[in-house]
Design goal:
By secondary structure, the chain is α+β, with helices and mostly antiparallel strands. 24% of the residues lie in helices and 31% in strands. It folds into two domains: 228 residues, 3-Layer(aba) Sandwich (Rossmann fold); 110 residues, OB fold (Dihydrolipoamide Acetyltransferase, E2P) (Beta Barrel). The structure holds adenosine-5'-triphosphate and magnesium ion (MG). One of its GO terms (molecular function) is ATP binding.
Length: 358
């Protein structure tokens, strides 16, 4: 077991592509840390620098108590699981599991013990004599996990390991990886662009944007107190509604002092779809409620819930409202939506940073 410590890590690829722009991050021993961010933000680059598959332009990477910048991947005591599994097609499952251990000249009874333990844990015992080509995608993913497990490393590194699986299997494997990690207590750094996967797996969530950390925190912290507009819109689906606020409040939303920009600083208000509710003309609203007059553009029925999308009279960004169950609202219908004042998030329009209201 080991903690991982990144200090001001940078990566500049040839051609002056600055992929990682100074990342400092502590991954405590035994924790599950998830790096999430859009395509191209530098997730794989960062992970590969920890693994030793990519050189580090500046800064330090420590695994355990050692600075590993100059160590070969094999000397770093980590195991990596990739999206494309990277199994040897001509070897059996057993062969794939044993390969790395044999290379290290491990005693054969120890190899057998580790392979058996991993096969049992992952329930792939019956598949040991098959070739990767004779396995389903989910089974291949399990073998790839097994190959990481048998090494009994100080840390696991995962790069989008589930993105080749169908939606249902992905959810199942996600839960399995988490259970396995809890059981083994192995420090893990996991990369994904899928915010839902990130939210459900992480002890600690790291949101990356263009090579920089936007926010670090527990999934709930990040969801409830997004530090920037970027995080607010990246985490959560449908995304948080954003409304520009002028001197007169938000056009089309019943104004109140609360909605006005303090000191004239332009801000953007955010409210999550689940913190809004449709109300009838006659419904009593709470004193602090903001009321939105919306024209329905469309409805998305998810099953247990629906999302009603509507426009404000003066135009501007579309607003999503979550409703329980099925919604039968037709496009063009006029509706009112209410939201309580304390559900609003406030962001500085220029910097995009969260405004903390005392
Ligand atoms: N070998 C390379 N040479 C030059 N630029 C590279 C190289 N590898 C990656 N990049 C660039 O570095 C940036 C970060 O790439 P990286 O693969 O780390 O992104 P990512 O967050 O993993 O994206 P994805 O979610 O699509 O996998 C991108 O702009 C990419 O084009
Ligand atoms: Mg990547």
């Amino acid at each position: 077991m080991a903690k991982i410590e990144l200090t001001d890590v940078r990566k500049v690829y040839p051609g002056n592509v600055e992929a990682v722009k100074g990342v400092s991050l502590s991954i405590p021993d035994g924790s599950f840390v998830v790096l999430v961010g859009p395509s191209g933000c530098g997730k794989s680059t960062l992970l590969r620098m920890v693994a030793g598959l990519e050189s580090i332009s500046s800064g330090t990477v420590e695994i355990g108590e050692r600075v590993v910048n100059e160590l070969e991947p094999a000397e770093r005591d980590i195991a990596m699981v990739f999206q494309n599994y990277a199994l040897y097609p001509h070897m059996s499952v057993r062969g794939n599991l044993q390969y790395g251990l044999k290379n290290r000249k491990m005693a054969s009874d120890e190899i057998a013990r580790r392979v058996d333990a991993a096969a049992k844990m992952l329930e792939i015992g019956p598949l040991l004599d098959r070739k990767p080509g004779q396995l389903s995608g989910g089974q291949r993913q399990r073998v790839a996990m097994g190959r990481a497990l048998v090494r009994e490393p100080a840390a696991f590194l995962f790069d989008e390991p589930l993105s080749n699986l169908d939606a249902k299997l992905r959810v199942q494997m996600r839960a399995e990886i988490r259970r396995l990690q809890r059981r083994l207590g192995t420090t893990s750094l996991y990369v994904t662009h899928d915010q839902l996967e990130a939210m459900t797996l992480a002890d600690k969530l790291v949101v990356l944007n263009s090579g920089r950390i936007e926010q670090v925190g527990s999934p709930m912290d990040v969801y409830e107190k997004p530090a920037s507009l970027f995080v607010a819109t990246f985490i959560g689906s449908p995304a948080m509604n954003l409304l520009p606020v002028g001197e007169g409040g938000v056009p089309g939303v019943s104004a109140s002092d609360h909605l006005l920009s303090p000191g004239g600083r332009p801000q953007i208000l955010g409210v999550r779809p689940e913190h809004m509710r449709l109300v009838a003309e006659t419904d009593a609203t709470q004193p602090g409620d903001a009321i939105f007059e919306l024209t329905v553009n469309g409805v998305e029925v998810v099953g247990a819930e629906s999302f009603v999308y509507g426009g404000l009279p003066q135009g501007g960004p579309e607003v999503a409202v979550r409703v329980a169950g099925y919604s039968h609202l037709e496009p063009g219908t006029q509706v009112r939506a209410a939201t309580s004042h304390d559900a609003f998030h406030r962001f500085d329009r220029e910097s995009g940073r969260r405004i903390v209201v005392a």
